[in-house]
Model the fold of this input.
Amino acid sequence: MKRLVPIALAAAVLANSSCHMFSSKKNPAAPKESKTVATDVEKDFMRRWVDKRTSDLVAQGTPAAAAHDQAVAEFKATYTYVDTAKLAK
Done:
């Protein structure tokens, strides 16, 4: 009789619908994973870094087009390990 109670409790816990240990259902509220997340983050980082550096150079008196070109070149030289820097124009 003493062994029956723990076995019955364990069976009840496993059979309970709140136990997701053996459930094959995925959480529908979970965000969907994108395979391009890393690329998107790198592109956003580059865009923001170049915009900031361009505005700094323009504030120092450099023409806008030259400042942008210089900012892109500095990004490529500084962040050589970032794939976006390798693809930057």
